[in-house]
């Protein structure tokens, strides 16, 4: 009845032009287009154009010259070193990241907040400062470093130092990715596994790890990208010895400073390609396992 | 199995979750731990299952001290409040988990595992869902799968934490009867936690009313209804 009384006057009122139906969460078309265009323009200016120019510069004198510059012994040594450092630092950090996230989310203990802050420390400390810390601690003039050098295991200006610096910088990636997920998942499934007779080890492999595998993969990919690209900390600890302790980012800088433009940009292009491979891998996995991702409650 | 709780106390930091409580649960009984939240009923259940360690006191299973028994050795079928089904495993693998987790010497062969899982799916009256994932099940189905998974290890007792808490009223009524039937078929000593007095009174043989970490009264539902011993019990039942 209420409807009748309201709609009656409306029906007799002269028909007025109705505004085009617009949902309450929908903006007018011109606004949507403007915002989209602004974002696309910014992306192009800040991301696409610089990335593309790296490849353009690298291929300026032709692909053959670019490839030749990469097969130079020093360049080749830098590529191998970067891959080696990532191959050591990333698995170790995956391991430590899982352990840290486990300790933070599955138990209650004093000092938890402290550990969380410590994990974030590498994000807030400048990489150069991190590198300096390692030099101070392990340098030849320090007690520990002197002893290590005396025993034939130099850390600073050698591969172990580069690995240490890279691990310090990339430590938060895996743990940061896992902590929120593991907090949300709680520990009921783990407890269920235990009541069903599983050992702690079996519980970890059959319940915990499958539940975090996607977050773990994301963390590892991010960690890997950063490990290959790290410059500041590595620059301080490596001593930039060409052919020995120069990683790809260091090599790029040195080549660039020497006006060896094609060589510098060829190496930069290769480093970019490595990062793009990582990104593609991630997208492929997301696409291939979309169902499982949805089922595990992660987008 | 006869369960005896002997002066069990539990403190978390400075908070007293359980004052020393003592309780004897006869073999084969269906027991409700009834009380408001914070009454210590879930803590008591978790202590029985070996998921929490009591601060003091003993737990005896069939007269044997089981206080130091690890959770894996207790053989307590535990149904969690939100069921805690393994989300990345099918219903079949969920139910088979406890059998596969056994040491090689006592692990049944695959054919035997399949046979047992099938039988359990029949018992919970969901014979066709073996290949599904927990996310594809309704709340009531999840609860029954959790029950089957707990029964698969041939437990000595069944412990359920708010088994009907996450379900709507209609399903709740149906599953009450389901739990009663499974209890009667298996004859297992069964303890469930609830804050719903109607549920406790209707389903259980014995009701233990708890409040603030203490046992207020224990007895048959009819006796507790007829003769509440403390003002708390009288008020709680009236609510």
Shape of chain A: globular
* Mean pLDDT, all residues of chain A: 85
Give a quick account of the main beta sheet of chain B: strands, pairing sense, barrel closure.
Answer: 6 strands, mixed
Structural class of chain B: alpha/beta
Class of the largest domain in chain B in CATH? Alpha Beta
Number of helical stretches of at least 4 residues of chain B = 9
The string of secondary-structure elements of chain A, in order, is: HHHHHHHHHHHHHH
If you compute it from the alpha carbons, what radius of gyration of chain A comes out, rounded to the nearest whole angstrom?
27 Å
- Structural class of chain A, please? mainly alpha
Describe the biggest sheet of chain A?
Answer: none
Fraction of helical residues of chain A:
over 70%
The tally of structural domains of chain B comes to 2
Share of helix of chain B, binned? 25-40%
**Radius of gyration of chain B, taken over Cα atoms and rounded to an integer in Å:** 18 Å
What is the CATH topology of the largest domain in chain A?
MetI-like fold
| Count of distinct strands of chain A | 0
What's the overall average pLDDT of chain B, rounded?
A: 92
DSSP summary, beta strand count of chain B: 10
Number of helices of chain A: 14
Largest interface: A-B, 20 and 28 residues
GO molecular function (chain B): ATP binding
Protein name (chain B): Sulfate/molybdate ABC transporter ATP-binding protein
Organism (chain B): Rubellimicrobium aerolatum
InterPro entries (chain B): AAA+_ATPase (IPR003593), ABC_SmlMolc_Importer (IPR050093), ABC_transporter-like_ATP-bd (IPR003439), ABC_transporter-like_CS (IPR017871), P-loop_NTPase (IPR027417), Sulph_transpt1 (IPR005666)
